[in-house]
Amino acid sequence: MNNIDKNAQKQRVYYIISCILVGVVAFTFAFPLYWIITGAFKTGAEINSATPVWFPSEWDLGNFQRLMTKRSAPIFDMTLNLFGTKMIIEGPVMPAALRWLLNTVFMSVTSMLLTCLTAAMAGYVLAKKRFWGKGIIFSLVVCAMALPKQVILIPLVREMSALNLYDNIWAVIIPIVGWPFGVFLLKQFAEGIPTEMVEACRIDGANEWRTFTDVMFPMIKPGVGACAIFTFINSWNDYFMQLIMLVSNKNLTISLGIATMQAESSTDYGLLMAGSALASVPIIIVFLIFQKYFTKGITMGAVKG
């Protein structure tokens, strides 16, 4: 009984220490978000106060008002070439911050969908198909994971310019599609699917597309969820690529647009915090939606041999 009591006490101590450490880590990661959200509702005097103001004395919406009224942009715009004449059609004007947010959501969601689709198909082929050069292709994918984006930045810019996509939101989307990490991740998941199931579908007369959509894709769905949230976050936070590819006010993303609203001689921290709080809402929603697939995908990938 004494040994049992001692083990129970040790487990209780370990549990308390673990809870304390997890609480400290959680507070460390959550505090910046708390500071941004509360700072978005603080007055300029509270933000620039010498002593930190941990909670706003009154919830001030002035920062969001300046964010929504400082610049404007059309809801949509189209460029048409009629009989050699270039025509630009623009929709109603809206706050530029909302247009930037729509641009960022469109960029991230489109990149996520296209990347998950291409990575799932590529992973299926590399895992279950036999063809000459498969090892070479997979080696190139692994090497591309270690290649910094800055190395291929100049060729990417020249390529987008040749395709007349420079200063277009598609110039940021296209380079993300075929993300090497997504191909690698979903290939590992596809390898865990028994090959007999694919062969059974072939015997039953199912074509390759039917085999992929009805058998493989549902079974690698946790990996697709993990790839989706990774791609969304990577695309949303890719400030460097957005800075290089996007120039016009109407085509900016939310992070890039907020950065351009800073004054040269001073910084409006309230405006920046309001923009940051607005930009954090969609990515938090996406993480909450895909959290189940994200955690399941990570754990399944961790135990895979």
Supply database-style keywords.
mainly alpha, 305 residues, two-stranded antiparallel sheet, 6% strand, two-stranded antiparallel ribbon, disordered C terminus, single chain, 68% helix
Structural category is mainly alpha
Compute the number of strand runs. 4
- Quick one: biggest sheet? 2 strands, antiparallel
Order of helices and strands: HHHEEEEHHHHHHHHHHH
The share of residues in extended strands comes to: 5-15%
First-to-last CA distance: 41 Å
* Major beta sheet, strand line-up: 1-4
Unreliable stretches (pLDDT < 50, length at least 5) are 301-305
Describe it:
- This protein has helices at 2-39, 44-47, 62-69, 96-128, 134-145, 153-162, 170-173, 180-191, 195-203, 208-219, 221-236, 239-245, 254-260, 269-303; strands at 72-74, 77-82, 85-90, 93-95.
- With 305 residues, it is mostly helical.
- The strands form two sheets. It has a two-stranded antiparallel sheet with strand order 1-4. A two-stranded antiparallel ribbon has the order 2-3.
- A hairpin with a 2-residue loop joins strand 2 (77-82) and strand 3 (85-90).
- Helix 4 runs antiparallel to helix 11 (221-236), helix 5 (134-145) crosses helix 8 (180-191) and helix 8 runs antiparallel to helix 11 (221-236).
- The longest helix is centred in the first third of the chain and has 38 residues, at 2-39.
- Residues 301-305 have low confidence and may be disordered.
